Amino acid sequence: MNFMRRVFPIAGLMIAVAPLSGCNILIPDVAADSPARFVQETSPVFYQPPGVDPRRVRPIPDQPVPQTRELYKTQFHQTYGLPVTNPVHAAMYGELRDEDFTLPPIPVSRMQPQFLRQEVDYQTTERPGTVVVDTKARFLYFVEAGGKAMRYGVGLGRDGYAWSGRGVVQWKQKWPRWTPPAEMVSRQPDVRAFSAENGGMNPGLQNPLGARAMYIFKDGQDTLYRIHGTPDWQSIGKATSSGCVRMLNQDVVDLYDRLPAKAEIVVM
């Protein structure tokens, strides 16, 4: 008797569930009743603002596919608005402690990138260790082995004052004293205070010769022209100096360390 009481409720439940086998009991099978009802109950519901007829709303036209952009033509990244910086340049042209002076960083983002120091392919008949100054392109090349050269951007002398030819870097000096030649003093009387008889200008960050100077001789005579550093980074790539080859201070330090004694120089 107790057994029958247990079996009958279970059997009844199985009979009641049997018609629902194969279905999700939470979602009625309305498709079996009426296709129209199925569409009505399953169609999506859209937000319709009052007074707006969705049949008259025009679809948004397809947007054009973005084209490839020149990302490095300007200071800022065209896609993300981030500054375009090169960590190598930041290291080469950052603040530099040298002797008793600290060279300030160069704002390389404001310079034309071709005038920044870089190793390039360079085919020449000049032997390694020679300096070649291309006055038209405003580049100085330190010739290396294997068809390579270290290239630097330079500022050059104004037309009428620039020197050209083949010579020798007779000697070089760290943090030199600037002594303008007599010809310059006669043209620019304001520099007379730094003439030879007055002892010249002391080394320093404002000294026109910058952190290093390399003195160019020809046939044993001083040409009075120099390769030297400059605090005026904006002059690089231009013809603004009185005949000398001027470099960024960080670059002239680098060249000074590479340059062998009595190195040959060609200015063309």
TrEMBL record:
<keyword id="KW-0808">Transferase</keyword>
<dbReference type="InterPro" id="IPR038063">
    <property type="entry name" value="Transpep_catalytic_dom"/>
</dbReference>
<comment type="similarity">
    <text>Belongs to the YkuD family.</text>
</comment>
<dbReference type="Pfam" id="PF03734">
    <property type="entry name" value="YkuD"/>
</dbReference>
<dbReference type="GO" id="GO:0016757">
    <property type="term" value="F:glycosyltransferase activity"/>
</dbReference>
<dbReference type="GO" id="GO:0018104">
    <property type="term" value="P:peptidoglycan-protein cross-linking"/>
</dbReference>
<feature type="domain" description="L,D-TPase catalytic">
    <location>
        <begin position="129"/>
        <end position="268"/>
    </location>
</feature>
<keyword id="KW-0573">Peptidoglycan synthesis</keyword>
<keyword id="KW-0732">Signal</keyword>
<feature type="active site" description="Proton donor/acceptor">
    <location>
        <position position="228"/>
    </location>
</feature>
<keyword id="KW-0133">Cell shape</keyword>
<dbReference type="GO" id="GO:0071972">
    <property type="term" value="F:peptidoglycan L,D-transpeptidase activity"/>
</dbReference>
<dbReference type="InterPro" id="IPR005490">
    <property type="entry name" value="LD_TPept_cat_dom"/>
</dbReference>
<dbReference type="InterPro" id="IPR050979">
    <property type="entry name" value="LD-transpeptidase"/>
</dbReference>
<keyword id="KW-0328">Glycosyltransferase</keyword>
<protein>
    <submittedName>
        <fullName>Lipoprotein-anchoring transpeptidase ErfK/SrfK</fullName>
    </submittedName>
</protein>
<comment type="pathway">
    <text>Cell wall biogenesis; peptidoglycan biosynthesis.</text>
</comment>
<dbReference type="GO" id="GO:0005576">
    <property type="term" value="C:extracellular region"/>
</dbReference>
<keyword id="KW-0449">Lipoprotein</keyword>
<dbReference type="GO" id="GO:0008360">
    <property type="term" value="P:regulation of cell shape"/>
</dbReference>
<dbReference type="GO" id="GO:0071555">
    <property type="term" value="P:cell wall organization"/>
</dbReference>
<keyword id="KW-0961">Cell wall biogenesis/degradation</keyword>
<keyword id="KW-0378">Hydrolase</keyword>
<feature type="signal peptide">
    <location>
        <begin position="1"/>
        <end position="22"/>
    </location>
</feature>
<feature type="active site" description="Nucleophile">
    <location>
        <position position="244"/>
    </location>
</feature>
